[in-house]
Amino acid sequence: MVQYMPPIANEHWYESEIHVREVVDLLDDEWVCFHHIRFLKPPNEKWGGRNFGEIDFLLAHPTYGLFGIEAKGGRYYWDQTSLRTVGGKVIDPDPISQAQRAKTFFLDRIAKRKPEIGFVPWNIFAAFPNMESVRPFGPPGFEDAIVWNTDIADLQKFLDRIFSGRHMWGGLPATRKRSLQLLQRLIMSERQVPSLGRRVRETAGDVEIATTVMLNLNEEQMSLVRDENRHLRTVTSGRAGTGKTTLAIHRSIQLAIAGHKVLFFTPNVYLSTLIRETFRAEDLLRRSGEDDESALGFIDVISLDAVTRTPEDLSRASEELANRLIADSSVYNALIIDEYQDVTANLFDALSILLEKESLDIHVHAFGDRAQATPLTDPWMPGHEFNVMALGRQCRCSEPIQRVVDHAANIEHRPNGIVGPAVELIRSTGEPLQIVERMLSYRDHQGMDLADITPLVLVPDDNERQIELTTGIERAVAQKKLVGSRISPKTADQFKGCESMAVVLWIEGTNIDEEMQRYIYMTASRAKAHLTIIASEQILEFVRGAIPT
């Protein structure tokens, strides 16, 4: 059996890497497989601002030499100059470039540090386990370096085909084996442990791919969109991270393009700002003073006017908005409600008043999660005229984060295949601000972009506490000259329905009751790639129950 270096740890691998590794496992014991090799960029090289290179697999054989294989999950296309996701995002560096950098780096190291190894045959490949053969694809001259899903079915056959009769490692067998031993030492000596920042960015990329796949390939969720075309009134429910807001936005854009005047409502004022920018980018946001009668299709976004911290705040803000809407003369023929679980019956009635009652195609579509509901005395409940549907596939959070979310919600965990760094647990023994300061400094040295860290503060009734933490973090950023001056604490309610690459969750309290579990479920699920929890030992012990031993 093939020898792995370093030995395979008891950890998750990316799905694309697993596909390749399953075949590598079948190679005989003459093969050595180096995996997850990261190396520092030479000072004279320019790699787009990155200070490291990496390669998923380096396969070494005493006769064949070296194979560099970079695995890439998902689906892509080549636009003559670069590799792009189905959503149009450029993959930089692309897998071929990554493999080429590894080849150049290690051949240079061999020449300088181990010249006695001599000539080393080396071929590079990019493996796409989720893609069938596409032509043309990749940089000119590298078409033979692309490994498709059909090739991965028999990697040994593929290797034999590529190397048959050429590029053999020269010298006597004894010399070849000695060269291989020297090569092993060299590669392992140059191997770097990936920084936390790198692992977070990797995971965030996988989350983005998962989201794209959900929108473009997931038959379950795409069927919901088609169902909504047949049903004018729908309620779509789903746990945190299943794509509710994404589908709500998608549905709104569809309706506006079709000529509807869409009213999009979300209780969260912060989330409404982000959603408004999305519609503005699509040139569908209603312009100030726009004539309802002349406009073909547009989207108008509204939210509660104030930040709600308690059920009483939410009810009061809902009542104020309802009174204002009743006096509003605007007319819409489509209503989209995000986070419907926080909508009162009175507010829903007021929103409905704005709809054209005589229209034959009035659309009303609500999206939400009852498990995140703020306790209300008069919550809106959909009637029998609504077609109820459910989302089941989580695509926002990495696997370690999702385990915590599922544990807090008391639901069965279903792996989503998105690998990520372990959830970091910090015991709160002193002043939380000092803990956060030390943690931010550490993150900065770990290559973490602190602008992607959004501390969520579970002190919904304590404005002074939030102001104190905000001031303290700003001071820490300024004094330590850390990257990320945009860091600002937000309460759980402020950030409800939003998401961030990395989240620092500061939890006050010690009791694990139903309300605390709801808060952990609601806030931990905001993190996509990395989660840090600062809490009492009692809370941390509860969270540890979600972590496999």
Q: What separation lies between the terminal Cα atoms? A: 28 Å
Please give the domain count. Answer: 3
Structural class: alpha/beta
Largest sheet: 6 strands, mixed
Query: Count of DSSP E strands?
Result: 20
Radius of gyration: 27 Å
Helix content: 25-40%
Tally of alpha and pi helices: 16
Poorly predicted ranges: none
| Whole-number mean pLDDT | 78
Strand order of the largest sheet: 1-2-3-4-8-9
Q: Report the portion of residues in β strands.
A: 15-25%
Which shape, going by the Cα principal axes? elongated
Summarize the structure.
The protein is of the alpha/beta class. It has helices at residues 15-24, 95-113, 149-152, 155-163, 173-190, 196-216, 219-230, 244-257, 269-281, 311-326, 345-353, 399-409, 432-445, 463-480, 514-524, 537-544; strands at 3-5, 32-40, 52-61, 65-71, 76-78, 83-85, 90-91, 122-127, 146-147, 233-238, 261-265, 298-302, 334-338, 363-368, 387-391, 424-427, 453-457, 490-491, 500-506, 527-535.
